[in-house]
From TrEMBL:
Protein name, UniProt field: Deoxyadenosine/deoxycytidine kinase
A GO term, aspect molecular function: deoxynucleoside kinase activity
Residues that hold ATP according to the record: G7, N8, I9, G10, A11, G12, K13, T14, T15, L180, D181, F182
Source domain of life: Bacteria
Organism of derivation: Kaistella treverensis
Family: Belongs to the DCK/DGK family.
Catalytic residues (positions): D78
Binding site for substrate: E31, Y43, Q54, R79, D84, E145
Length: 204
């Protein structure tokens, strides 16, 4: 079984991934943030480092999906390969921070990689509004995220909404998290588990 958790920066993907992995006793797979050699440079100068960052993420994610499928294990994954292309690279291109030439180059590599990977058995989208995202990003206090603008988060949110509305790679579960606190309130985590079980196994 391969479940993936998706959503904007600050939506709670990593936290939920850890909690689901612990609950089901599955393996958790996380995006390579702490060891990403481009992330701090990117937030300091987006136009200079956008292509290098996106290619790094794409390669890292492709390797991750390949390992997930070859392992035969039950996996909960933080983010998917699709977001790199449909959300982040596309948004950088819209903002003129990734040139059309680089975006086309990136997209051709993504489409090639996509043909070799399988979609998760269930994609969980954590839907959140921008004020809630800002609050969570501020709370966790990562230095390299301090320069993220509300405008940037808003553009990403619009991209997520469009991508999710068109997603047809596999099963999809949308969870609105603004009024949930699945860390502090066990009943909220229980609600998410019920939604997952229903999606995976049906009502009976």
């Amino acid at each position: 079984m391969h479940i993936a958790v998706t959503g904007n920066i600050g939506a709670g993907k990593t936290t939920l991934t850890k909690m689901l992995a612990k609950h089901y006793n599955w393996e958790a797979q996380f995006e390579d943030v702490d060891h990403n050699p481009y992330l701090e440079d990117f937030y300091a100068d987006m136009s200079k480092w956008s292509f290098a960052l996106q290619i790094y993420f794409l390669g890292s994610r492709f390797r991750q999906v390949k390992e997930i499928r070859e392992s035969g294990k039950d996996i909960v994954q933080d983010r998917t390969i699709y977001e790199d292309a449909h959300i982040f690279a596309e948004n950088l291109n819209d903002m003129n921070l990734l040139t059309d030439r680089d975006f086309q180059n990136y997209s051709s590599v993504f489409n090639l990689m996509k043909s070799f990977v399988s979609a998760p058995d269930l994609l969980i989208y954590l839907k959140s509004d921008v004020p809630n995202l800002v609050k969570k990003i501020y709370k966790r206090g990562r230095d390299y995220e301090s320069s993220i603008s509300i405008d940037y988060l808003s553009k990403l949110n619009l991209k997520y909404e469009r991508w999710i509305s068109e997603y047809n790679e596999g099963k999809l579960l949308i969870i609105e998290v603004d009024d949930l606190d699945f860390v502090e309130r066990p009943e909220d985590f229980g609600y998410i588990l019920e939604r997952i079980e229903t999606e995976l196994h049906g009502l009976f």
